[in-house]
Design brief:
This protein is an alpha+beta fold. It has a 6-stranded mixed sheet with strand order 6-9-8-7-10-11. A 4-stranded antiparallel sheet has the order 13-14-12-17, with no helix packed on it. A hairpin with a 4-residue loop joins strand 13 (614-615) and strand 14 (620-621). The protein is globular.
């Protein structure tokens, strides 16, 4: 770790922190947080924290102006250095400070030694200069921004490979170190020159050929650039008094660490015990130390080979399983092309549907599934894979009821490190140190893409076997981290894995759609759009393109002289929805533009598109639910998205009329009432909030009564509206400025309302303050059930990002708890339907609502049972309330 790099960044990025005695402690806290994160993520065999020494280095002797633009270190920072070194060492990190060179040179020397001795190295720094060290065994990461760069990442970020980084920096210059480059030459030009001429030497050799001002400026510094390159090149041969083995022997000094934590007031770490607990997010690269050999690969081409393989597989306690199929984007119609397996020291591919000319003979799907079906359907034979819901669909398309899906790497990653990427390639890279083959490398992409069934069997076998192997290897690293944390294990074992199979069944159930009704609505919307367009033309004084922001700007702000509310990044007056809504309060044309936009979106997105989404085999719409999209745990609906159908307008609500029950059945909608406000009352412990819910009061009217000091029966509709905005605004972390915007009032009045709210509901204020502070200390917040919601920007030096993270810290526990509750409700309801052998089907989940298709004969029992199950699925300090409605269609039921 580059301690000096993070020392400055932590000092400037974090809020000013003081110890109980008034000593500055922000930089100490920041650097220790990152060291704790690194140790937890990588579990390194050897580690060091490297700082710059005081005084000049050899670069100052080579160039007198080196770093001459740097200001003196602030006293509040310099006073933290000695105790920081002491704390770093106590944490078990050797501190290295070598006179005459910089920390970069020490790091480069260690990385060079490690590579020669067969080690893998992670360099943690905010300094881009050190990307010159990246190669197949050296990874660059910035722990503050959570950025990780391997060789390909360096190329993608800078436009040049690591071995050309010094040439690149020489051309553009390094302002931080006061090393000038070529005047007016930026990254784009530097990359172009290096690509054209191969290197800085090549650029210098062809300087006479480069035209324009850039060429002139280049020729002015031909003598300087070799010196710039020399200054930017790190030394890799610094004499060091320690070996890698020495760095592997350091140990944590718990007593000293406790004393330092006590001195500087790091209470959370003190509560954790010996200082060994982790107070930071799982890293994007957990342990090249975990890099492991890949399993041997084989291809199963005939029945005997499969039978022999299955004999060994039957004895395996856990098998990695993968499917290769057609139509990965259409799970209900995808067909098997092959299956892959991994266990013990072996991974295998069973090709079933490769049909290109010259393809080898393969065991047919029918025969293969005849042999494999008992194992695939055996719940006692534990399997593991990536996205087992998709695996279940593909197998179901062939009549196999998949069972025994014990572990899913997609879900494991989502539970353990929600802020990271969850695809298998990313997981393999950061947890196993593997670079895997992408499917696009086999099939191509775009217009030239081929089906997986046309991929050469030998290449497909290597890819597919590797995927099953990877899933098993990733699981062996990630799941133990979940298993040792009771909260995360509960989320994984009791919520995410069970709800996955509920979602699988909901996706196959689908929902019946009245396409004729939607087509009629589409026709009506088309007529309404034409009518509103004509009204808009009349209001504008002539026809114009309602889809052109440029023309709208000209009409609103130049011709009609309406006030400019805000501007785009290019300085033009904005015509976004927020601006038009504000202008529409006083002017007809913005309102008409908004109405045309709204109707057009309804028509194109829903009334035109939904009928085309109906599966002709079932007559139903089958959405796909994603468990791993939203960081809060909320489910997402795709292809088509059934969760964003607008309900604020009559036209939007009518779309729900097309979601219908078949003859002899009804649609039942069960919706948690004001769930996030109830969770707020539970989390905050505020007695006034709890009392309002306990006594069954209208929570917004009760809030208005508290804020305005009125009896409940004297609260007006407008006062209730104000209270509703405050209630929902504050649980989303909204400031008084946001409340003012939403209510259309001045900020002073909004501030008064907010202050009154917190006076009457002090528990809410305490909860918000404590949550923000805890999020800053830990880097995450949790739901009631223990789902961990990481906030990488909570310590950002950029105020806008940090404030957004603070708002998320307040809301995420509520939204995440609501997500956990609806998932628990789905599991409970499906369990009831199964145990009672009911013919009722869960068909949709929309935010806090479950939608079921219920035969008339089961209606009363299901209606009562669903309500009871949803309200009893968990016990909070405020009662859960589910509102249940029934109708021939979704709109009538909701």
């Amino acid at each position: 770790m580059d301690g000096s790099s993070y020392l400055y960044r932590a000092f400037h990025a974090l809020p000013e922190l003081k110890s109980p005695k008034g000593e500055p402690s922000g930089a100490i806290y920041g650097v220790l947080s990152m060291l704790r994160k690194l140790a937890a993520d990588y579990k390194p065999q050897a580690r060091a924290c490297v700082f710059d020494a005081k005084g000049k280095t050899f670069r100052d002797e080579q160039y007198a102006e080196y770093k001459a633009n740097r200001t003196a270190m602030p006293d509040d920072l310099s006073s933290q250095i000695a105790p920081l070194h002491e704390a770093v060492a106590a944490l078990g990190w050797p501190v290295l400070v070598v006179e005459g060179v910089e920390a970069d040179d020490v790091i480069a020397t260690l990385a060079e030694r490690a590579t020669k001795e067969g080690w893998r190295t992670v360099i943690s720094t905010g300094d881009k200069d050190l990307t010159q060290l990246v190669d197949g065994r050296v990874l660059w990461i910035n722990t503050m921004s959570n950025e990780k760069l391997d060789a390909e990442g360096v190329r993608a970020k800078f436009g040049v490979p690591p071995d050309k980084i010094v040439d690149y920096l020489s051309l553009i210059g390094d302002q931080i170190d006061n090393i000038p480059g070529v005047d007016k030459v930026g990254p784009k030009t530097a990359c172009k020159w290096i690509a054209q001429y191969g290197s800085l030497d090549g650029v210098l050799a062809h300087a006479g050929e480069i035209s324009g001002h850039a060429g002139e400026n280049l020729r002015k510094v031909l003598d300087w650039l070799p010196k710039a390159r020399e200054l930017l090149t790190v030394k890799r041969d610094v004499p060091l008094a320690v070996s890698l083995d020495d760095l592997a022997k350091s140990e944590l000094d718990a007593a000293k660490l406790r004393a330092l934590y006590d001195r500087f007031g790091f209470k959370t770490w003190l509560r954790e015990g010996e200082g060994t607990a982790v107070a930071a997010a799982p890293s994007a690269v957990s342990a090249p130390a975990a890099a492991r050999d890949k399993r041997t690969r084989r291809t199963l081409l005939d029945e005997q080979a499969l039978r022999d393989f299955m004999r060994a597989m039957q004895a395996a306690p856990l098998v990695g399983l993968g499917v290769q199929s057609t139509g990965a984007a259409e799970p209900l119609s995808a067909q098997l092309v092959g299956l892959s397996f991994a266990f013990g020291g072996e991974a295998a591919y069973l090709p079933l549907g490769h049909g290109y000319p010259g393809a080898p003979a393969q065991l047919g799907i029918e025969k293969a599934l005849e042999l494999l079906k008992p194992w695939l359907e055996d719940a006692t034979r534990r399997k593991l894979g990536e996205n087992l819901k998709f695996v279940s669909h593909v197998l179901a398309n062939h009549g196999v009821r998949f069972a025994g899906g014990a572990y899913d790497t997609l879900i494991e990653s989502y539970v353990y490190e929600v802020h990271e990427r969850h695809d298998l390639a990313a997981l393999a890279r950061r947890h196993c140190g593997w670079e895997t083959t992408s499917q696009e490398a086999l099939t191509g992409k775009g217009a030239s893409r081929i089906a997986f069934s046309d991929v050469d069997v030998a290449r497909a076998a290597d890819y597919a076997a590797e995927a099953a192997d990877c899933a098993l290897a990733v699981h062996e690293v990630v799941y133990p981290q979940i298993e040792k944390d009771d909260k995360l294990d509960y989320i994984y074992q009791r919520i995410e894995m069970p709800v996955q199979q509920v979602l699988f069944r909901m996706e196959r159930n689908g929902v019946l759609l009245d396409s004729a009704k939607l087509e009629a609505q589409s026709h009506e919307l088309g007529k309404e759009i034409l009518k509103k367009e004509q009204e808009a033309y009349a209001a504008a004084g002539g026809p114009f393109n309602l889809g052109s922001p440029k023309q709208i700007r000209e009409i609103l702000f130049e011709r009609q002289k309406l006030p400019v509310k805000k501007k785009t990044p290019t300085g033009e007056p904005s015509t976004d929805e927020e601006v038009l809504e504000e202008l529409a309060l006083d002017h007809p044309l913005p309102r008409l533009i908004l109405e045309v936009r709204g109707f057009s979106k309804l028509k194109s997105t829903y009334t035109d598109k939904l009928p085309k989404s109906v599966d002709p085999r079932t007559g139903r719409v089958h959405t796909t639910y994603s468990q791993t999209t939203a960081v809060t745990g909320r489910l997402a609906s795709n292809d088509p998205n059934l969760q964003n159908i607008p309900i604020r307008t009559p036209q939007g609500r009518r779309i729900r009329e097309a979601f219908i029950a078949p003859p002899g059945a009804k649609i039942l909608s069960a919706d948690y009432s004001q769930i996030e406000l109830r969770i707020m009352a539970h989390l905050s412990g505020d007695e006034n909030l709890r009392r309002a819910f306990r006594e069954g009061e209208d929570i917004h009217r009760a809030t208005a009564a508290e804020v305005f000091g009125l009896p409940l029966d004297k609260v007006t509709g407008e006062e209730r509206r104000v209270a509703k905005v405050i209630n929902f605004g504050l649980i989303y972390g909204m400031s008084s400025f946001g409340v003012a915007q939403n209510l259309g009032i001045d900020r002073g009045t909004a501030q008064t309302y907010v202050e009154r709210y917190f006076t009457r509901f002090p528990g809410a204020k305490r909860y918000m303050d404590e949550t923000r502070q805890r999020a800053r200390e830990l880097g995450y917040v949790e739901t009631v059930f223990g789902r961990r919601l990481w906030l990488p920007e909570i310590r950002s030096g950029a105020p806008v990002r940090r404030q957004a993270a603070e708002r998320a810290a307040i809301n995420a526990p509520m939204q995440g708890t609501a997500a956990d509750l609806i998932k628990l409700a789905m599991i409970s309801v499906q369990g009831f339907l199964d145990s009672s052998r009911s013919k009722t089907k869960l068909i949709m989940q929309v935010h806090d609502e479950l939608v079921l298709e219920v035969p008339d004969g089961e209606l009363e029992v299901v209606k009562t049972s669903v309500k009871d199950l949803m309200e009893s699925v968990a016990k909070l300090d405020v009662a859960l309330v589910a509102e249940v409605g029934v109708g021939d269609n979704w709109d009538k039921a909701h």
